[in-house]
Write a structure and sequence with these properties.
About 40% of the residues lie in helices and about 25% in strands. The protein has about 280 residues and is an alpha+beta fold. A hairpin with a 5-residue loop joins strand 3 and strand 4.
Length: about 280
Amino acid sequence: MTTAVPARVLRRAVLGWGLGHLALGMRAAGIGLLVTEVAALGIVAWLTVGLADTSLYLVPFLAGVAFLTAWAWQAVAAYRAARADGTAAGAPPLALGWLAIPLLAWGAGFWLVGAGAASPAAVLDRFVADWDAGALAAGGWPAPAVAQARAASDDLARDAGRLRDLRVRIVEHGEDRAMAVAEAIHFERRASRFLGVFHGTELVPVADRQVLVIDLAADPATLPGGGDVGAVRWRIVRAVRPETSGLGPRGSSAPGPRLAIWCGAAADQTMRCLTS
């Protein structure tokens, strides 16, 4: 093993796995770490492509954290090896602080794409965000769902009277199917009590009517090249307006309003039976 300034060894080790060991003349260890870095980076990328937006989104995220931890570990190992030969330490090992940059980049950047289809709530969040921004067509959503959402928006825009908001909530959630409803709501001021003693008021959302029914399904997600690990990727199957759905209760072929799934008295298509 050759003599080298520990601080310089650490800086090289931070640049890439094994570079610090190569600076110390530890050729086998340095080349082994370089090969391991390439393989580990490939595994992280493979897991990210296959699972980042699925229900197993934590697997690639934790794999990336483990990769960065190993990066720091090999840098510290090279630094200690340089110190072991009695060479002066030189500058303090502040170079490890540079590893905070990839750590922050991974921690923040992953969640820009991670968990996007991990659950019905995550898919609905993206759908509503695109709906509100008028970007459904560019979001890759099913064309019939886009058309129905636009029609619902037109109906809401034509509504007169009090100011209305829109509430989207999940009303059924199974292992591979889910249903959500978008409701036109208004807010009412109601009496309340703070700590059971002080009188006050609060604004409470009250559903006026249902404007959209959204069906979601979970599809098995496989890793690139094959391999089922039990992950699922949720997607919107369709979105229909309640007056045009023509569907009856699940498990029945009889036509009827979709709201009959949730309450027995929905023939007038009002939302009072769906309020919680």
